[in-house]
Amino acid sequence: MNKIALAIVGVVLLLGVWLVGSYNGFVTQGNAIDGQWKQVEVQYQRRFDLVPNLVESVKGLQKQEQKVFGDIAEARTRYSGASTVNEKAGAATQLESALGRLLVIMENYPELKSDTAVARLMDELAGTENRVAVERRRYNEIVQSYNTSLSVVPGNILAGIFGFSRRAYFESTEGSQESPKVQF
After folding, report:
1. What pTM did the predictor assign?
2. Per residue in 90-129, is it b (16+ CB within 10 Å) or e — as a string?
3. Tally of structural domains, the chain
């Protein structure tokens, strides 16, 4: 009887350690997702900090493109007021579209391209766009790993018991795959 009781206690302890480990794994992955989203936001903030300088430089050289400048300002305002990942992603995509139109404008005005301040800011912005893309990719990779953990057996059972749910991927908004069109 002693051996059976000891075996039961051993199995219960192993099961308990496994459950705690699984729970902690879900928590760790969830925190990694939150942390990676913060990295995406850091790059968005860097972008939003650079854009006003670029806009002001371009404005000084080109007065007639007020719509693009207004769109950029509106996207910054939407981003500042956004509270969810999807709202922030939508505002970021709106800004990307406006920046795309700004780039087309710059291509059509050689005096803008020759201005060193604009050129330096464009280089910074290009670097920031690359960083944003990298951080978004990393975010989606972590979300994929977490969602996979929640979807496979026994993770799906334990996730339901512990109350963990799937996380949303970063997705581009409708129309973001289209090139911006600029008309004069």
Report:
1. 0.65
2. bbbbbbbbbbbbbbebbeebeebeebeebeebbebbeebe
3. 1
